[in-house]
Amino acid sequence: MRSSKRARAILTALLVTFLWSTSWVLIKRYLDEIPSLIFAGLRYTLAAVVLVPGAVRHRRQVRDLTGRDWAALVVLGLVYYTLTQGGQLIGRRNML
Prior knowledge:
By secondary structure, the protein is mostly helical. It has helices at about 1-30, 35-55, 60-65, 65-95.
């Protein structure tokens, strides 16, 4: 059982690394054709569509989130994803 969890964790880490690294290739390829913030919005909308089934599957844990948890998630979304990722894409666009 322990080795199964370890193998799953390693495979998950490899998948995340692969997805993260390919996203930079896609950003470099398509950033000239699509405005920066629209591109970022499309990426995160696609990610949300992929993650929603997991949230539905684990709806009990989602329902158990407190107001403080939701506030932290909103702040994380606004600060990290919107400001930093959006700023990064805008900066990268200006460099190209």
